[in-house]
Design goal:
Elements (H helix, E strand, L loop, with lengths): L1 H16 L18 H9 L8 E6 L4 E7 L5 E8 L21 E5 L4 E2 L7 E3 L5 H5 L8 E3 L8 E2 L2 H16 L5 E6 L5 H6 L6 H17 L5 E4 L2 E4 L1 E3 L14 E3 L6 H7 L14 H5 L23
Amino acid sequence: MVFWSRVVALCAAAALAGGAALAADGVSKELAPIPGATLALMKARAMTPAAPILIRTYKKEAELEVWKKGKDGRFALLKSFPICRWSGQLGPKLRQGDRQAPEGFYLVSLDQMNPRSKYHLSFNVGFPNAYDRAYGRTGQNIMVHGDCTSAGCYAMTDAVVEEIFILAREALQGGQPAFQIQAFPFRMTAANMAAHKDDKWYDFWKNLKEGYDYFEISHLPPKIAVCDKRYLVNVAFTGDARPDPTGACPAYQRLPIPRAPAMQEASTKPAPKTQAALVKPLGSVMGLRFGPSKPAYTAFTLGPATPGR
């Protein structure tokens, strides 16, 4: 609550200095209510405004998804938004000034929300994270923001970033310490992975896919750790061991993957014979063996209007 008191104070200061930007109803844009249509969606899906959120982004598809926790404790897709512009190529961000959008797993807390952004509204995705730092990645101020223009961030239209900001605000103000951002090069289906098997970042993307698959199966945010310069998904370390991003991984156990109810129901149905060869054990689907990945970045940024550029 201290943060939002500070937001109000900042808005008042901006008004004295020349005027804080106001929404159409005269309310400061960062304090606007959730749109009525979105509230109706929440009600239909047994969600509350203060429930935790999770964000997923896909460069190739130029989409940002907001998932929200329901009464059953699982996350369900609330809304998908178009990314107006993102920068760089498919692949991780490597260094400051490369105009590259990051890929990976990030956390956003209250202190990363910026109601006074020169790009309408914004929040910092948290690049570089522990994985990025392990590879010496550099960069700062990687944002999701408005104004539909960017040289290294995920840029939305002003109206879209307002709604995303408001949804994040309600979740963080409602008690969520930080929400997870999962930033991917594309939807990590078997077909898309096969289409990019010769890419130099393929091994890195296989590591990202472990977290992608965990969420697809469980509809719960994956527990992420970094050691040996790779992501570990859904593990428990022995004793009080703490992973060193650049050091060898301490002893750990793979935790059971809690399937979402729909997945549990599907798993009780026999697979058609024509598809039997495609059905793989859960451990294989998740790729829960984390082999060394090639240097890569894991964050999320916005830039050029055309995906793939």
